[in-house]
Each structure stands twice: as C-alpha cells, then as structure tokens.
UniProtKB/TrEMBL annotation, chains A, B, C:
GO cellular component: plasma membrane
Keyword presence, Cell membrane: yes
Stretches that traverse the bilayer: 6-27, 34-51, 66-83, 95-113, 175-197
Family in the record: Belongs to the UPF0126 family.
InterPro entries on file: Gly_transporter (IPR005115)
Boundaries of every Glycine transporter domain copy: 9-83, 95-170
Keyword tags: Cell membrane, Membrane, Transmembrane, Transmembrane helix
UniProt-annotated location(s): Cell membrane
Superkingdom, natural source: Bacteria
The protein's name in its UniProt record: UPF0126 membrane protein
C-alpha cells in the first residue's frame, strides 16, 4: 500500500469518526431532525479537512474525490439510526471525537510538510485540522467549542502532540507515514487518558477555583 | 442575453434577496443599529458566494465585480428604512430568504460543474452555497442555524433538490441555464410549501415527540 | 526601511495586540484554562489575516513566516500571566482591540490594492480584515460579535474610515505606506473617541429607545 493510499484510508476513517461524532452530538444536545443530524454529521466530518486544504491553497479533497461525501453521509446516516441506542452514552461520542481529532491532526501536519510549510506552521496546521471539525460542530450548536472550554479536559494539547511527532521525525530526516500513525495513537491516548483522569490545563493565575 | 449574463443577474438577485433577509432578521431578533443592520445584510448577502468561490479555488466574485457590493449595500439600506413596516412580518423575511436560497443553490451547482467537479460534489457545493449565507447570519446572531433546526421546516432539502436538478440535466447532456432557473423555482416552491404546510423531516428514532 | 518591512512590522504589531485582546477577553468572559486562553489569543491574532489572505487568493502570511505564530503565542502567553492584573480592567482590552482593528484594516486595504482589487473591494477587504479577528473571538465565546452589537459603539465605521484613507490616497495617485499609518491613526482615534463619548450609529426607524 502506497503512502498516499494510507493517508487516504486514515483521512476517510477520520471523516467517518467525525460524522458519527457530529451526528450523535446533534441528537444529544439539540432538537434536530434527520436533515439536521445529517447536516451536522457531514459538516463535522468534512469541515476540518476543508479548512486544511483551503489553508494549504488546494482544492479541498472533499470536492476532488466523491468517497469523502459518501463516507460522511454513511456515518451520519448510521448515527441517525443508532442514536436511540447511543444518545445517552457520552462515551462513544467522545471516543469517535478523539479518533477524528487524532487522525486529522497527523494528516494535517503530513500534508503541510508535503506542501513545504515550516515545522511550526505544520504543527499549527495539524492542530487546526484536528480541532476544526469539532469547533464548527460546536459553533453551529451554539455552544462554546470544546477546544476552549476548561471543562473539556485536554483537547488542543493532544492534537499538538500528534502533529508534533509527525513534524519532529520529519525534521530529523525520518519522515514516514508510520510516524503519522504513531502520532495519531499518541494523540488518541493522551485525549482519552485526560478524559478518564480528568486532566486539565492550569487556570489563569488568580482565577477562582473551579 | 448570454449564459454568463443570466448567471450574473440571478446571482445579484440572490445577493439582493439575502441582503434584505439578513438586515431584516437583524432588526427583528437583535438590538442592532444602522451599522449592525448593514453588516448583517452585507454578510448574509455575500457570505454564501464567497464560500462558494473559495471552495472552487477562485477569487470571490464579490471582489472582482463592484456590483456585488453595491447591490448588497442597497438591499441592506433599503431594509433599514423599511424595517419599521416589515419587522413584525416574518413572512417577507422568509420569502426573501427562500429566494436567496434557491438562486444561490443553483448558481453554486452551475459553477461547480463549470469547474469540473463531479455530480455529487456539485450538489454538495450548491447546497452549501444556498444555505451558507443564512448560516453565517444565524451564527453571528448567536442562534442555532435554520439549516439545523427541526422547527425551521425543510431548508437543506429544497437547496439539494434545486442543485440536483441542475446536476441531473447536465449529467444526461442537457446542461442549460434554463434548468438552473427551473431548479431555483423547484427549490423556492418546496421551501415555501414546507413553511405553509409545516413539513418537517422525521425526528431520530426514539426521540420524544415535539 | 522598505515598504514591505513597514507592512510586516505593522502586521505583527496588530497580531500582538489582538493576541492580548483575545486572550484577556477569554479570561474575562469565560471559564478558560491556559490552553483555552492561548487558543483564543492565537485565533483572534491570526484569524483576520488568514481570512484576508484567503480572500486575496494567497497562502496566509501566518503559514509563510514563523514570526506570526511566535508573536501570537507570545502575546497570548503574556496575557495569561498578566490576566490577574488586567482581567477586571476593560479599558486595556479595548485599547488592544482598537490597535488590532486599526492596523489590520489598513494592511488589508493595502494588500488588496497591491493585488489589483478595485477601490470599493479594497475598502471592504480592509474592513473585513480589521473586524475579522474580533468576530471570530466573539463567535467562539458564543456571544454576538462587537461588529453587530449596538452597545459596542462604532467599530466597523472606524475600520472603514482607516481602509478608506488608504484607498482614497492610492486612487488619487498618492499611494504611500505613510497614508496607511495615517489611516490606522484615524481608525484608532475614532474608535477610542466613540468608546469615550459613547457614540453610536442611529437605530432603525421606529425602534424602541435604548
């Protein structure tokens, strides 16, 4: 399997995870119908990648390859029918979200390096790609995005670490798609551990205790 | 009249309708002054087309042709002075919004086909163009966008149908600007009928009744 | 110092001012931790310029030059540690915001002229660049953007004036970076005076008094 094929598989897996995440979050937090669930799933799934490609100066992959739209629609539709089983379960939503975050962060960083962005810029672009879909989801649902909220545990940090692994190994001359996989696993584990152990970043000095 | 001229006229008509829609919605739902009304009208009017052109990889038409800005400003200014007559009337706002939705959906699909996007992608781009302006309007007004809300009747579906007509006839080799006009009329009628007859998409299985 | 160097210095100064503004606003209005403060500062600082460059059809300066990211991070980090001194003081936040607004408005207009946009389009792009960062900040904080709110005094108008000065002097053949500096000073003064003297734009005719 070529590197491009592996990136495509990882990217589509992220799209699917974010489609489930966005659609289930819609069912759980707002009064949405079939159309609303689908719109939210598709937007969450495709939003991060579209932002990534616009910032890279490329036609979004979503519009070049029909499989992105089909996978996003499949995830959103599946979530619609599963929602009565899953809607009270916050955990599956968080795991799907962590998967999308991880995969998109490392693919964003990988594509930024391919285009010739510097290391700092590649880490930023990977982080934006990772947190982008969930941020659009939360803005559309009219709530403060997970990436900002102090009650959401670590979210930008895992994405930064995942993108950072990709960029670090590329910078020292060991660029390989397998470091993207390793970065995604690191991001996923840090995100899930932060949820489980309730890790938070420090509050501003002088802020009242939570 | 050439096809390009017809597209321009339809596009500017959509801009004008969305400018009225955005500005009047601002007066109706928030405490906004002349500047706020104008900003909201112009943003609603130009937002969908700007998103469309960025996704197509083009310089937004708004910045290539001064008439877009002038038409948007004219619509917003007119709405400001008409608002005391119209602000309690939800119906004109909904009709302006339906007009903008319809025109932008078919123009988005038409431009996507011109650029060489596949059928599925062209339908998605048309739908995004149609619902984009109203979604920006609602995000700025800090409320859940019409495209997501189960109480807003059908909104993405008519845009999808309008864009779908354009793409269908192009795919079978009958591409013509008149199918864009037909698609816009279909979108407009379905949207208005859904408002009148209170059509909604089905809720998620197991969701509590409305 | 070349014109390009002056533009870079002004741009980075705007980034720094908006990073302080966004980060301090986060501390003041939401429950955010170190990560949330940083994300909000960086997003406010870099958002306007990224929108500007996307609309100009260019790779965002943020991703071409690492100094943008470093300056944004420095401003956000500084704000985090200063926040216990500054968080109850609305005035510094408003002055940083006015500085970012002014600098970004004139740089946006300058870059639009360089790319060959018409006068009206250059004024619009400058205004969008000026108000963009603060609008993203407010959308992420789930509140109605300053640019729309009637209680926020003049905000889009000063940006429009600043961008207008740049475009006016360029149109009459006197283009010079010093008119950008003059435009920024005009924008800054009008914004600050409108805060001090509580200037507002007129409400819609027939609207109830404030």
């Amino acid at each position: 399997m070529s590197t491009q094929s592996i990136i495509l598989v990882l990217d589509l897996t992220g799209v699917f995870a974010f489609a489930l995440d966005g659609a289930l979050t819609g069912v759980r937090t707002a009064r949405v119908d079939l159309v609303g669930v689908t719109v939210l799933g598709v937007t969450t799934a495709l939003g991060g990648g579209i932002i990534r490609d616009l910032l890279l100066g490329q036609t979004p992959a979503t519009f070049q390859d029909w499989r992105y739209i089909v996978v996003a629609l499949a995830g959103a539709t599946l979530a619609f029918f599963l929602s009565s089983q899953l809607q009270h379960l916050a955990t599956p939503i968080q795991l799907f979200d962590a998967a999308g975050l991880s995969l998109f962060a490392v693919i964003g960083a990988t594509k930024a390096i391919e285009v010739g962005f510097g290391p700092l810029q590649a880490v930023l672009l990977g982080t934006i790609t990772g947190v982008g879909g969930g941020t659009i989801r939360d803005v559309l649902l009219n709530r403060i995005p997970v990436v900002l909220s102090a009650n959401s545990r670590l979210y930008a940090i895992p994405a930064l670490l995942g993108a950072g692994v990709v960029v670090l190994f590329d910078t020292i001359g060991l660029g390989s798609i397998w470091f993207a996989v390793a970065g995604a696993l690191l991001c996923y584990c840090v995100r899930v551990l932060s949820l489980y152990f309730r890790w938070n970043a420090p509050p501003p000095p002088g802020a009242p205790p939570a």
